[in-house]
Write a structure and sequence with these properties.
This protein has four helices and no strands. By secondary structure, the chain is an all-alpha fold. It is elongated.
Length: about 80
């Protein structure tokens, strides 16, 4: 396989991943944007990729993920104190 073939294959795989991710995001319809962003992040997508999928900005995704982590830390701390 030539370098050009390898590059075309990589691009095709990346497109397929984005298609699958878009379908996954659409299935999360009842969840708010923050929860959708968190789930897509757990799947390994970058903030920029998540922003494209959700029709948002990378900064908004970053803020949403930061808030989600902060909320989880608080709930984990509360559980440990019991």
């Amino acid at each position: 396989m030539s370098g050009a073939d390898t590059e075309r294959l990589a691009v095709a795989i990346e497109r397929l991943c984005m298609i699958v991710a878009a379908q996954y995001a659409a299935q999360l319809g009842e969840l708010d944007q923050n929860e959708k962003a968190e789930r897509l992040s757990r799947c390994g997508f970058t903030n920029t990729e998540i922003a494209v999928l959700l029709g948002s900005t990378p900064n908004a995704v970053n803020v949403a993920l930061h808030r989600a982590r902060k909320t989880k830390r608080k709930s984990s701390s509360a559980k440990r104190r019991r």
